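INFO batch 0412 | record 1 of 1 | parsing
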Amino acid sequence: MFVTFSMQKKPEAENGWQRIWRQLFEIWQPSRTTIQRIPLYGSFFTDIRIGARLCADAEQERQLRQCCRRALCAEGCALPVGFCPAVCEADIRRMLARILCNTATEILKSSGLPLYCRCIALIDPDCAYGALLEPLIKHVPDVLVYTENHRLYQGYAKKLMEEYGAPVQFAENLQVLSRACLILDTAGSALPCLYPVPVLSVSPDRVEDKNLRLWQPEWLLPPAQAVIPPGIDRYAFFAALRKCCGIREIDRLCARSLRCKEREVSPCDIAEKVFRNQSRALRVR
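INFO prediction complete | emitting tokens
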């Protein structure tokens, strides 16, 4: 469970007289802070909309004392004393990495490539995303890992070999990853030119390199999207549902679109690109 703090939404379109009337009405009868428990997938979060009149009555104060101390704040709101952030940047990155992992396997499955031609690369220098190996290797027989911590990855590799008979290969340098059909980058650092291989990245497009970098996944989970409070960051909200409420549906999500520079592309577009790349590579060989 967690708490969201946001400001009560004001009317979007007001002319001068409407705005003056609303301001006078607020002075006469100021809006009260509201506290509401929102159920979702068998769990819940508490939505607190801050009004002009702060919580004062005994019932609201009792509700506040019973609230979980983990919270998300909308832009323009300060986290109240006694509350701590519900998620950190690492939690958001872990959620995005899992969604991009699901998306990557779906792209390769829909690409039309035969199984033996599918190869996916995972960039994980610190071995923070070793748990992604299993969902990857279930659908892609050839997984290539670039990491600076081989020792920690050996445990994952051994487990997968025993359970699936699938060996995990390790790349000695980043340039080797150009043989993959698709790259999942959890580090978000600048890479050598691996073009035309698509790179699914958990980081925003602030990395300047010459790769076909795809980021900012968009997905659909209507029951959750319908209740995001105004001003709350969407990625932080879903990460809090995953971490604090244990909503596993988020781990099964796939992106319906991703950002590539200034345009939006669909997984189908990427699958076609992967197929063309691999077909061209086979002809060259």
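INFO post-check: The longest strand covers residues 43-50.
INFO record closed
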